[in-house]
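haha ok so turns out i had the wrong file open the whole time. this is the CORRECT one, sorry everyone. sequence first:
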Amino acid sequence: MKLFQQMLVAGASVSLLAPIAAQASDVVNLEEMSSYSRSTKKKSSRFDSSTFTNKVSEDLANLKGRVDGLEAKQNVFEAGSFTDTTTMDGKAIMWIGGVDGGDNLGGVETIGTGYTYTMNLNTSFTGDDNLYVRLKAGENAPQWKVKETYHIDTKDTSDAFKLDKMWYTLPIGDNFTAIAGPRIENYYMYITPSIYKPGALKSFKLGGNSNFGASTDVGFGLKFETEGGFGIATNIVDKSADSDTGLFADGTSKWDTQIAYTKDRYHVSATLSDAQNWTSQSYNATALGAGMKGSTGDTTGYAFRGYWMPEESGTAVPEISVGYDIKSADESASGAAKEASSYMVGLTWKDMFQADDRIGLAFTQPLKVTECNGTCTSTEVDPLVWEAYYSFKPNDSMEVRPAIFGGTDVENSTEDDIFGAVLTTSFKF
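then structure:
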């Protein structure tokens, strides 16, 4: 009776596997099983149920392994894989808002929209390296491209889909990482200097970007990081490398070296910047500060950054990010700006009303001239820019972020005040 039951179970198993066997006949060898059955009949009238059961079990195990492998490959594909080496993810961001005031806006209230659409392609050839390519399109109303109201997500390509970023990252041993590419910004090669995420304005990126001011061009860098938290990063971005001027020539370039110490809940760093004809600090600077280059075009900058996080989120204690920048012009002409400074403070409260929500509040003094070579030919203002926002996620792939922002004496006059509000919605895929 037991033998009969075993035969029924074996027969039922084969029947259930028939649809799969049609596509995976190389796994369950039906011809071999048939041959085995014929050979046993010739040798004995008794059916060797033990041998048959063992054979079926072996084939079932092989089939399970093949199915698991197919499922794993399917999961990778579903996660965004084009090939065995490349994955894709993306983001669509839209915003609408209004701005009142500002010299660059003509002092009138304006309402406008903007959007960006991004595709990120990541390719690994060894499992440890990565080739990053970002494709991006965007279009923005004029107020989101003016420096004092420059939206954090602005990328104006006039609706054209273009190559926006491209670089290659290669780990060297346990502690070194090399980065190089024809389309890279220097801040991608730093040890992260700030954890404050701006809600509206680019002025608050990287803890205030008076020295970290970025520009997408040819660049390369090297990072050294230890398990104990100590790190050094050095990088150069050259706007003239792909022009007639050439790399390391008398053009426009910026070389930064950062020393950092980072632990789970805090970070401190100092960065030395040597810039030549570099004006990207204009995103967070007065008119006088933005134009500071000296007679040779060279400036030297010092950027100090720090952040701290509480042990638990959802409390009244916020994350704190701070930044302080000093910039000096080499061989400044008489009456020209010689030294300038900037600071930034950012506070973030997480998980206050629901999981993954965020409240942000930040202040920055844009880069303003503090010393001239002799008597300044123009009067400097006393600027201040701020923002406040709330970010929440209706689902894992969507973020809604209303924000208000404002400033006083933001560019070049004591009446150059702004106030604005913007609603930004992001979709990740």
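The helical segments are 2-21, 30-43, 49-78, 287-290.
again sry for the mixup
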